[in-house]
């Protein structure tokens, strides 16, 4: 790990593994995913520079309600959230540009308890920009950024001797299938002291039409976002995917309470992945899963927490009941 102080209030630790791109994880993940019966690719590889830009565009689409709904909750209820959690330190997993986080930091400042912000993100550039902006906006705030893959490096996040609130916003927990979700929440639970808490953003179950429109927008941005993972494989692994030979697909699976996102092969084709020295065949109509986005109800949320040794303390929703922020503590 390298550490470069950029000001007295800012520290940014960069985990060496993330400095030179996706690396060995990508190779193993792609090999495993493309040799399984239902082919699949992990959603974390969507987010290269273009993919991150496309996701930003998604958050502004009329059909994509989660970002606006979560922002509305934060704007309306941050004071109550901070009163319930009483944190001195905010640790944000997947902080990005921290645009929604400001409401929480403002509430912590107003409560007189704002000491430290720990943005944890895979992008060094965004984390540095965010840190620099926030110390300007919140005089006296100490920012200790950690550039890493938080799934891998969760246990390496610095300990603080402060009351900490971990925030995992945006509904990204929805990307985890139930078993890995339980393991991930268990790992977070094991990091929480008795005074610490987890603030989790989750999208909620609602009517199929609304859910499916959010993942298959009329402007086609989500389709471009989805296909971009193929461009990432082309660049990082020397693959020769033809992005025009696949179509975007998103459907709500009501039994599993999740959006299932896929790329469907438009013809019989064979793709060469030079970096893995492998060839992969796709039949016409064959589907490859690229993302799951789980939706929650109050009972399923309580169940998810309970299975991980966490206890739901409070829930806040937007006026339309589309999205939830919930606070949990170790049992
Ligand atoms: C970033 C995982 C919360 O599941 O809604 C948006 C990703 N994929 N449109 C989501 C996503 C397609 C998003 N998360």
Description:
With 331 residues, the protein is an alpha/beta fold. It has helices spanning 24-34, 49-58, 66-85, 101-110, 124-137, 150-153, 178-191, 208-214, 221-237, 298-306; strands spanning 2-7, 10-14, 89-93, 116-121, 142-147, 164-168, 197-203, 246-253, 258-265, 269-273, 278-282, 287-294, 310-317, 323-330. The strands form 3 sheets. A 9-stranded mixed beta sheet has the order 1-2-5-4-3-6-7-14-13, with helices on both faces. A 3-stranded antiparallel beta sheet has the order 8-9-12. It has a two-stranded antiparallel sheet with strand order 10-11. Helix 2 (49-58) packs antiparallel against helix 9 and helix 3 (66-85) packs parallel to helix 4 (101-110). Mean pLDDT is 94; it is low at 1-5.
For the structure shown, list the relevant keywords.
331 residues, alpha/beta, nine-stranded mixed β-sheet, 35% helix, binds N,N,N-trimethyl-histidine
Secondary-structure map:
Blueprint: E1 2-7, E2 10-14, H1 24-34, H2 49-58, H3 66-85, E3 89-93, H4 101-110, E4 116-121, H5 124-137, E5 142-147, H6 150-153, E6 164-168, H7 178-191, E7 197-203, H8 208-214, H9 221-237, E8 246-253, E9 258-265, E10 269-273, E11 278-282, E12 287-294, H10 298-306, E13 310-317, E14 323-330
Parallel strand pairs: 2-5, 3-4, 3-6, 4-5, 6-7
Antiparallel strand pairs: 1-2, 7-14, 8-9, 9-12, 10-11, 13-14
Helix pairs in contact: 2-9, 3-4
Bound molecules: N,N,N-trimethyl-histidine.
N,N,N-trimethyl-histidine binds near residues 58, 66, 170, 222 and 293.
């Amino acid at each position: 790990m390298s550490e470069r102080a950029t000001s007295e209030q800012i520290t940014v630790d960069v985990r060496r593994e993330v400095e030179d791109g996706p690396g060995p994880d990508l190779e193993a993940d792609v090999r495993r995913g493309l040799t399984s019966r239902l082919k699949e690719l992990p959603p974390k590889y969507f987010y290269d520079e273009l993919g991150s830009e496309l996701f930003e565009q998604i958050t502004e689409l009329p059909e994509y309600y989660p970002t606006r709904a979560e922002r509305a909750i934060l704007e309306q209820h941050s004071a109550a959230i901070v009163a319930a959690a009483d944190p001195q330190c905010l640790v944000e997993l997947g902080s990005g540009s921290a645009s929604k986080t400001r409401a929480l930091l403002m509430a912590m400042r107003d409560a007189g308890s704002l000491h430290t912000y720990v943005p944890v993100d895979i992008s060094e550039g965004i984390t540095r920009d965010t840190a620099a902006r926030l110390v300007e906006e919140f005089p006296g705030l100490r920012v200790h950024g950690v550039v890493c893959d938080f799934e891998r490096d969760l246990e390496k996040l610095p300990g603080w001797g402060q009351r900490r609130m971990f925030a995992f916003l945006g509904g990204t927990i929805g990307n985890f299938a139930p078993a890995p979700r339980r393991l991930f929440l268990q790992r977070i639970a094991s990091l929480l002291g008795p005074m610490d808490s987890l603030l989790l953003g989750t999208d909620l179950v609602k009517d199929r039409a609304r859910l499916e429109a959010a993942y298959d927008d009329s402007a086609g941005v989500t389709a471009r976002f989805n296909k971009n993972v193929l461009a990432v494989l082309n660049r990082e692994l020397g693959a020769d995917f033809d992005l025009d030979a696949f179509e975007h697909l998103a459907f709500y699976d009501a039994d599993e309470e999740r959006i299932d996102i896929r790329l469907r092969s438009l013809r019989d084709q064979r793709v060469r992945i030079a970096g893995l020295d492998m060839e992969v065949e796709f039949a016409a109509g064959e589907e490859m899963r690229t993302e799951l986005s789980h939706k929650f109800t109050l009972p399923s949320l309580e169940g998810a927490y309970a299975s991980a040794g966490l206890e739901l303390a409070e829930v806040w929703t937007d006026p339309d009941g589309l999205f939830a922020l919930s606070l949990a503590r170790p049992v």
